[in-house]
Amino acid sequence: MVRHIIRKCTRCGRYTLKERCPICGSETIDPHPPRFSPEDRYVSYRVKAVYKEKVESRGSESSTTN
Ligand SMILES: [Zn+2]
Predict the structure, then answer these.
(1) Residue 63 CA, ligand 1 centroid: distance in Å
(2) 6: Cα within 13 Å, side-chain hemisphere
């Protein structure tokens, strides 16, 4: 599987597919790391919200049986 991941030079800001900048030889970084994507953050937020909802509904259930 070939993945074309755009990377960005930390020194000159040039976009490249290499791990080293072909222009200045500096290290390049992934400008969009998956773990920092807002979409991922939104998903984890939704998971937490659903979990909280379940806990709250379970809590109200036990209180009504008491
Ligand atoms: Zn560079």
Answers:
(1) 63
(2) 5
Rounded Cα distance, 37 and 50, in Å: 20
Give the H/E segment covering residue 26. none
Distance 4 CA to ligand 1 centre (A): 18
pLDDT digits (tens, 9 = 90+) for 35-60: 655 666 666 667 777 777 777 777 65
Cut 0.70: pTM above it: no
Q: With pLDDT > 90 as the criterion, what percentage of the chain qualifies? A: 35
Q: DSSP letters of 20-39?
A: B-TTT--BEE-SS-GGG-HH
Q: Are 33 and 42 in contact (CB under 8 A)?
A: no
